[in-house]
Recover the amino acids of this structure.
């Protein structure tokens, strides 16, 4: 029993770990997300950056005007992952997880102070360290795809063109269309407007609708998929050790 416990962890270790991981995802991909615009010597640039405590993503479009006989406007996309921020935030997450493990030991002592080693409930309460890794990976991936909006050019039945933003996986639980553009943006090409909207996922749209039943469905599907994969992993690992 003692040798088995060296290779496994008590389920109470998972509670603080999941809280820290969920807080980390929210801080880095939602709370800290900031859209910005900056004027440059030859034009302006705008995009979105997020990350906590360090910026790990910075991307947008750079618009520059040049005049050589005729006025020309050039648009290019820039940025992406800031790898130094990714490394520093990853280290911060690791330190936070190590601290959560220390806190979970206190929680475990308070919940299970006098449990006998041979108790079947205690034996079933210990899980393999790979199980929370699988669970956190799936949970983080599902949160990422459900918090990242997709913006596309769509053609309506009447032949008109529109820009549509959607959110949700596997079910689309949010849709918005007809973005609110300023007077100058209306003269840009559709590709430039699309790049601008993708760089600013918080852009305002005239029409937006949430599908509450699909949102609940995505939450239930995510819980079932994550717990099912973790349960299958735990079952396979226990069967392999037995």
């Amino acid at each position: 029993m003692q040798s088995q416990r060296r290779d496994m962890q008590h389920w109470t270790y998972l509670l603080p770990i999941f809280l820290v991981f969920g807080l980390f995802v929210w801080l880095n991909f939602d709370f800290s997300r900031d859209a910005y615009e900056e004027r440059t010597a030859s034009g302006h640039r705008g995009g979105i950056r997020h990350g906590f405590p360090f910026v790990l993503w910075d991307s947008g479009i750079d618009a520059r005007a040049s005049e050589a006989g005729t006025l020309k406007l050039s648009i290019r996309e820039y940025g992406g992952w800031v790898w130094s921020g990714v490394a520093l935030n990853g280290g911060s997450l690791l330190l936070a997880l190590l601290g959560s493990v220390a806190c979970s030991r206190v929680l475990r002592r308070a919940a299970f102070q006098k449990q006998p080693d041979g108790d079947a409930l205690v034996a079933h309460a210990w899980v393999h360290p790979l199980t929370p890794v699988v669970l956190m990976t799936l949970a983080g991936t599902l949160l990422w795809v459900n918090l990242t909006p997709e913006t596309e050019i769509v053609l309506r039945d009447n032949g008109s063109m529109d820009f549509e933003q959607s959110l949700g996986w596997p079910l689309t639980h949010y849709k918005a269309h007809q973005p609110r553009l300023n007077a100058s943006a209306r003269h840009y090409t559709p590709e430039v407007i699309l790049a601008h909207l993708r760089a600013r996922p918080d852009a305002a749209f005239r029409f937006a609708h949430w599908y509450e039943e699909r949102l609940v469905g995505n939450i239930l599907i995510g819980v079932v998929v994550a717990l099912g994969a973790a349960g299958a992993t735990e079952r396979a690992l226990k069967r392999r050790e037995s």
Q: What stands out?
A: Residues 212-241 form the longest helix (30 residues). Helices lie at 2-6, 14-31, 83-111, 120-124, 130-147, 190-199, 212-241.
